[in-house]
Amino acid sequence: MSVSCVQPKRIADQMYVSFDRARSCVRHLNGTHEIGCQSSTSGNSGRMYMIDNDQEFNSFITDTKLIDSYRSFIIALNVNLFTTSYVDKLMTSLGSKLNGLLLYLKSSSSRPDYFSQDDQSPNHRYSYYLNQTQVVNWNPQGNGLFFRSFPFPMMFIDEQEDYERLVKFYRQFNISQSTPTCGLELSTFQNAAHTSKTCMRRNGISHSLLDSSETMCDPVGGLNVYSKLPQSLTIAPKIRQPKSVILILAATDSFQMFLKEKGPTGGAQQPATALIIFLSLAHLIGQEQNEFNQQDKEIIFVTLDGDALDYSASFKFLFDMKNGDFPTGNRNEDPIRSEHIHSIIEFQSLSLTDKLS
């Protein structure tokens, strides 16, 4: 992302300042739809307009003279105003002139009291909810923006230093309606489009026919990893008894709308705390494995990568189990199937704050 403060008649005086730590909203695909955001091939640009509060928001969307004066806008919006209501009003008021959104966080102390880009009933299209006649909205602050498809890019800056630089340039060049003005350019172009099946097919065409290493799209998630106690690795049962396996699970991913280009991104339901407990338990059980081996239960540890979005990791795990492909690597070992499962223990993080309700 870059800021350009431009004197239109003097191209040589253009000045660009990059914000390399900005997070980007990306495009996601499933079997039937595409969601998320992306820019055009060359990026989206427009006149920067900064909106910090509700009063400034209402003043802007009712200022038809200002809106009619420019061909396109990129709105720098306080993250506290990033709700369905405000976004829809901007899209209605500006129409095709809305060329992008840049969300900003002033400081760590100005974070919203409530925020969730997930649905009010997360993952309600799957699992337990399918048997419910009435959906339980246990995430009442969810705005569902993650699952919408936007025709413009969105980015988010959460570093106070970046926010201060942004305000500095905006105040320097946008104190009046006259030129020069400050513009924004958001560049988040991605090749993914249409549906998962279509995009993966394009991957194959690109690699086989065009001899191109460019990837159109990547699968969400990574690898599910399983581990056993050391003695269980060498003494694998050839025939498993029903209800003889205990699975201990932990997720390794989180739910996030805005991703960093490099490094950890963070997100809702951070897995770090659960993974610490998961690994500590594995260590303790490993120290007492002689005692555990005297029991008639086999303990298997599994980490799931991809459950934050539509339980994709769990579905893959169950698919392999149903087809006799779990565990892999030992052909002499009897595969684990659903009838062999005695119990499942899963670790997740819980918040102690009352602001979730």
Explain this structure to me?
The chain has two domains: 185 residues; 132 residues, no CATH class. It contains nine helices and 15 strands. The longest helix is centred in the last third of the chain and has 16 residues. About 1% of the residues have low confidence.
Q: Estimate the mean pLDDT confidence.
A: 83
Largest sheet: 9 strands, mixed
- Global geometry: elongated
**What order do the SSEs take from the amino end to the carboxyl end, as H and E?**
EEEEEEHHEHEEHEHEHEEHHEHE
Straight-line N-to-C gap: 36 Å
Helix content: 10-25%
What's the number of helices?
9
The Cα radius of gyration reads 25 Å
* Low-confidence spans: 6-10
Strand order of the largest sheet: 2-1-10-6-7-8-9-3-13
Indicate how many domains the architecture comprises: 2
Total DSSP E strands: 15
The fraction of residues in strands falls at 15-25%
Overall SS class: alpha/beta
Brief account:
The protein is of the alpha/beta class and 357 residues long. Helix content is 25%, strand content 21%.
Search tags:
Nicastrin; alpha/beta; elongated; four-stranded mixed β-sheet; 357 residues; Ncstrn_small; 2 domains
Describe how the helices and strands are arranged:
Elements: E1 2-6, E2 15-18, E3 23-25, E4 27-29, E5 34-36, E6 44-51, H1 54-61, H2 64-68, E7 73-78, H3 84-94, E8 98-104, E9 154-157, H4 160-173, E10 181-186, H5 196-208, E11 225-228, H6 230-234, E12 245-251, E13 258-259, H7 272-287, H8 289-293, E14 298-304, H9 312-322, E15 341-347
Parallel strand pairs: 6-7, 7-8, 8-9, 12-14, 12-15
Antiparallel strand pairs: 1-2, 1-10, 3-9, 3-13, 4-5, 6-10, 11-14
Protein name: Nicastrin
Pfam family, one: Ncstrn_small
Subcellular location: Membrane
